[in-house]
Amino acid sequence: MAHRIIAHVDHGKTTLVDELLKQSGAFRENQAVAERAMDSNDLERERGITIFAKPTSVEWKNTRINIVDTPGHADFGGEVERILSMVDGVVLLVDAAEGPMPQTKFVTSKALALGLRPIVVLNKVDKPDAEPDRALDECFDLFVNLGADEDQLDFPHLYASGRSGWADAELDGPRKDLEALFNLIVNHVPAPKQLAHQDDDFSMLATTLGSDPFVGRVLTGRVETGRLKVGATVQALSRVGQKIEQFRVTRIQAFRGLAQQDIEEATAGDIVSIAGMAKATVADTICALAVDTPLDAQPIDPPTITVTFGINDSPLAGRDGKKVQSRVIRDRLYKEAESNVAIRINDTPGGEAFEVSGRGELQMGVLIENMRREGFELSISRPQVIMREEDGVKMEPIEEATIDVDDDYSGAVIEKLTGARKGELVEMRPAGAGKTRIIAHVPSRGLIGYHGEFLTDTRGTGVLNRVFHSWAPFKGAIPGRRAGVLISMEDGEAVAYALWNLEERGRMFVGPQAKVYQGMIIGEHSRDNDLEVNPLKGKKLTNVRASGTDDAVRLTPHIQFSLEEAIAYINDDELVEVTPNVVRLRKRYLDPHERKRMSKQ
C-alpha cells in the first residue's frame, strides 16, 4: 500500500518521516543519519522546506508501506498533483497550535477529490500553546467546506510529536513510539487496487523524471497492471495515445528506506524507477507493446505568474558565471520544464529572452537559485500575473492570504491589503497569545512585492501564507513601489566617502569597493523620483589640516537583498542581474538618453 504525508510548511512532515524510517528498522543501529533525511537537496536543507516529492518505503509487521513526502507550499503544488496517482491513502499532519493553513487546504482538496480517506495527525501537541481540540474541529470544518463525503468525514485521528517520535490515540497516552500510527495506516488505508491486475499486460504512469550519470534518464511511477522484468521491451505512449518510443528496460529500482535497491521484477502496486528510455517523460504511460490506451494523468493547475529570463547584458557580464549564452539558458529551462510539469516556457521574439510561467515567486526563486549555483548568469524581470478572459470580461487570479500578526500591527496590515492592494477582508479573529488572525482575498498582483513591506509593518513578527483562491474580474490598477531609486552614473568601484554623502538621499544597496556601472541601482531614493548619482566621487585633498574636517566616515549598513526580495522589489522598467556570486538591480535601459527620458516620466 502507499500513503502520502501532506501538511503546511513547517508542520513537521519530513521530521515525522525520519521517525517512521527509524522505528521501522530502515536504518542500522549505528548508521549516521542526517536530520530531515528526506530533504536531500541542498536548497531544501538550507531553507528547511520540502521542494521535491520523494518516495520511500518501510516494512511493518510483514506489510510494506510506501510513503511519499510532499511539499507543503502551494508554489510546488505540481509536485503534489502528479504524485496523487501513486497513493491509496493520505496522512494529514496539522500543527496543534496553528491548525490547518491555506496550503493544507490546497493539497487536501486534491486528495479528497480523488476519494482518498484521510488520517489526521495532530502534531506538536507537546508545545505550550497547542490546542489540539480546536485544531481537530478546524480540520472537520475544512473537510466539510471542501465537500468531503461521509466516509471521509468519519476520519480517524492521532495525537503526536514527530520530533519526539510518538503518536497515540489519546492525548494522555503512553507517548512511547509510533506503533499506533503504523497500525492505523495498515488497518485504514485500503490495499492497492492494482494487486487484482497482476496478470494483465504491464502498464505504469510516469510521475517523476530524474537522471543517472550511468544509465541516463530515470522515470519513477507506480506499476498499475502486470509485471515488468529487467530486459523486457516496452513502449511509451503520450497522454493522447501517440507512440513516443520503444525501448528495452535496463534497470528497475525499488525504494527501500533512503536507498534505492536493484530488483529483477516489479509487480502491480510497486513504486519503482526504471531506466532505458531516451524520450519518455512525466505523464507518459510506459506499457507492454500490446497496450494501446494510455493511463489517465491527473490534470495540473495552470500557472499564475510569468517571469522573463534573459541573458545578462550588463557591463559586468561573464565575470562570475561560465554559462551566459541564450542557447545554454534555453536548454536548461526546457530541461526543467520537462521534469517540472507546473512550469511552462515560451520563447520571445529575437530568442534572447524566455518567458517562464509558474505557480509563484518562491517556485521561480528556487529555479533561479539552482541555476545560479550551476554557473548561470541571468537577467530577471518583475513577475507578471497571468490574466484570462471569460465571456469578454478580463479576469485575474485572487489569492487567499492568511496572516497571523501581533494585535498592535493588525490595523496597519488591514489598511495596506484593503486599500491600494484592492483586497477584501474575509475574517478577523483573535488567535491567542496576543495575536490576531486575518484572512483576506487579495489580487495576486497586490501580493507581489508585499512580503518585505509586511515584515517591516509587523517588525518581523508577522506570518503570511497565501494560496490561489479563485478568478475574479480585473480590479483596476494597483500602484507599484512608491519610492524612486538611486542610479549610478559612473563605472568603477564605489567609494565610502561618496556613499556617506549619499546617505541623506536614501538607503544604500551597495557598500564600499562594490563594482558599479552606469544604470545600476545602488540605493532607494527618499522621494518618489529616480535620481542619478555618482558613487565614485572621493574627497578632495588639500594641504589644510583643521580640527573636525577629517572625521572618519561611518556608513550605515547597506541593505542586502535575497534573490526573492530583489525580484519582488523591482518595477517593470527594472531588472535583477543574477550571477553565481552577486545579485544586482539595474534599469532595463542602459542607454543614457533612454534613462534620462524615463526619469522624467
List the helices and strands and how they pair.
Layout: E1 2-7, H1 13-23, H2 42-47, E2 54-60, E3 63-69, H3 77-83, E4 89-95, H4 102-113, E5 118-123, H5 132-145, H6 150-153, E6 157-161, E7 166-168, H7 179-188, E8 203-212, E9 216-225, E10 227-229, E11 233-237, E12 243-248, E13 251-256, E14 259-262, E15 265-267, E16 271-275, E17 285-287, E18 305-310, H8 326-339, E19 344-347, E20 353-358, H9 361-373, E21 378-380, E22 384-385, E23 388-390, E24 393-406, H10 410-418, E25 424-432, E26 435-443, H11 444-447, H12 450-457, E27 463-473, E28 485-488, E29 492-493, H13 496-502, E30 506-508, E31 515-516, E32 520-525, E33 531-533, H14 563-569, E34 574-578, E35 583-587, H15 592-600
Account of the protein in words:
The protein has 5 domains: about 1-190, Rossmann fold (3-Layer(aba) Sandwich), CATH 3.40.50; about 195-285, Translation factors (Elongation Factor Tu (Ef-tu), domain 3, Beta Barrel), CATH 2.40.30.10; about 305-385, Alpha-Beta Plaits (2-Layer Sandwich), CATH 3.30.70; about 390-475, Alpha-Beta Plaits (2-Layer Sandwich), CATH 3.30.70.240; about 485-570 and about 585-600, bipa protein (OB fold (Dihydrolipoamide Acetyltransferase, E2P)), CATH 2.40.50. The strands form 6 sheets. Strands 18, 19, 20, 21, 22, 28, 30, 32, 33, 34 and 35 form an 11-stranded mixed sheet that branches. An 8-stranded antiparallel sheet has the order 12-11-17-8-9-16-13-14, covered by helices on one side. A 7-stranded mixed sheet has the order 2-3-1-4-5-6-7, sandwiched between helices. The protein is built from 15 helices and 35 strands. By secondary structure, it is of the alpha+beta class. It is about 20% helix and about 30% strand. The model is unreliable at about 30-40 and about 590-600 (pLDDT under 50).
